[in-house]
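Lay summary. Proteins are chains of building blocks that fold into shapes, and those shapes determine what they do. In this project we predict the shape from the chain. Here is one chain we studied, written as its sequence of building blocks.
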Amino acid sequence: MHSNISPKAKRKYKVVGIALAVLLLAPLAALFMIRGVSSIMHRLPNRIQEKAYISLGGIEQYINVRGKSAQNPVVIWLHGGPGNPDTFLTTSFQRKMEDSYTFVRWDQRGCGRTYYKNKQAPLSWLQMLDDLDSLVDYASDRFMQPIIIVGHSWGSALGSAYAAEHPDKIAGFVGIGQFIDGRLSDQLAAEAAAEMARSSGKERDARDIEAYYSIYEKAGFSSDDFDIKAFGKFRQLASKYLSPNDKNPSLAALMSPDFGWNDLRWNLKLMSNMNWYIGFFKPLNAALESFSPPDGFEVPVCFISGKNDFICATKLVREYNIGLNTPSSEMFTIVNTGHYPMFDNSTAFKDCLDTALSKILAKQ
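And here is the predicted shape, written in a compact code that computers can read:
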């Protein structure tokens, strides 16, 4: 049976097919080229650059260690979530500080690369503190240098509790988007976002903000009645008015040389099944709901907040810092940034973190 398509038409279809293939493959090729160049640029000849699994709390957990010299102070970075490793989102500021500090980043129990090694590992607040204690001991024994805990969001709750309990093991603590009271932060956000929407003539947005907040705030993250859809809609609308300069991290993640296959798997797992996430991390979310930040510290502490952070309300962090019973505490606020100041404005964040770490080390 002969085809009715003429040779001229076949050539046309072939050209179109090749053009479509190029259009589809070019961005992918560019992405891998950017990742390759970035990986080369971020190599540290004769320096510390490790991606490894070490035993913490009886299971193998993933760490990423980078720095110029083992003689430098150590920064242990605690990511947020729970369950949101962010190594690949903080490359830009960290690389500028690796001459002065050794960074130890950790995929915490139950998430990221650690999860794929230990899918059945139990989760609890006390276990997370124990894992962190083991990591501090590991870093202390290996480097024998001052250790500073830096925690973001959920990591700031974990880090601040650890800093209050173990002042003998660390030089200080830095809280980024410090977690104080999640429910109160959301209440303040709902009120402020609705007011801004109304003042902008967006009455429908104002009513939606109030409605979605009313639906989900009746049950906490650890409740079986938690409405993830209402929560997501509320956060989306609140961000539109309260933190409009937030950047989308997707492209930055894909271009990062630290973003691997298991990172992609983990993020796709979270995005495709938030109900699973809520159920899996229920023990840690329950711990957050009952969390009260320490009244004071025996080590110097600093806080860094995006001025537009409504997830961990900057207003609450400021009030908390003022009332602290501690020898030394200071707060830095970065304008035009939200809950992720280290990504929204990496240069300003790097300067703030550098200042905070220097102030803490000066107290040694």
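What the prediction tells us: The longest helix spans residues 7-41.
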